[in-house]
From TrEMBL:
The gene is ku. This is Non-homologous end joining protein Ku. Transmembrane segments: none annotated. Residues 233-310 are annotated as: Disordered. InterPro entries: DNA_bd_Ku70/Ku80, Prok_Ku, SPOC-like_C_dom_sf. It comes from the Bacteria. The keyword DNA repair applies.
Amino acid sequence: MARSIWSGYINFGLVSVPVGLYSATEEHEVDFHQFQRGTSDRIRYKRVNERTGREVDYEKIVKGHDLGDGKYVIVEPEELDNIAPGKSRSLEISTFVDLDEIDPIYYQKSYYLGPKDADNKGSYALLRDALKKTNRAGIAKFVMRGKEYLATIRAQDKVLVLETMYFADEIRNPAEELDDLPARSSAGKQLSMAADLIEAMSGEWKPSAYTDTYTERVKDLVETKRKGKEVVFTEEEPEATTPTDLVSALRASVEAARSRRTSGATKKTTKKTSAKKSTAEKTTAKKTTAKKSTAKKSTAKKTSSRKKAA
């Protein structure tokens, strides 16, 4: 069983639920080291005193806040620990909100919350089921690894999921970050066609249908170079659709999407029909076999009776 990376209590009202925090996700990527080009010499980083040029042990390093003009406030690790909130290892829920009200931009990273005490699994299940029934998420704060986090606690199937979140002042204002954002679209026909395209391309959310193709390509690249073969790149970058081509591009896209949907629906219908035929054929075959078996038994009984009479 995986080890929890944090443990404490979910507190709401006067109820405390002992829980452990576990990683819910893992990234898959190809690891690379750094080398000097043309050699097999690894590049490594060292913690070096910029004045003396000497390497410094990690234990001798402290943090400093830059005040400007070459001035710093030096802070010891113990001082940061002493002012850290949540020393009681508490996930204190301050309020419950409707899940649909939370903008996904606030979500940061997902974790599983598991029951930490076998005697308190009932309280864990109670909170989980109540959240599921009300479609609510608990908003809480907690401290992990010397940092305070804002978090939501929600129910997903049999488990409670904790999502660390950004604070409001950590979300950048797009109006301040981006220039020349377009005004509301005024092209009624184009807007209608774009909406039609979205409808034609709509479907169910199936996470397993999406895979990391880039990582697969990186693996293929590494394997190709390992074998000493030449690497060939054929994919071209797309070009922006010009305003004059927009309507025709939308129309062609809608037709292609509808055609794919129709084709997919036909394939599903064909599969269902084939499955029904197969089932019907099996049922008919079983009935025929049963009838033959019954007829054979009946004939055998009649023959036996005749022999006895003789």
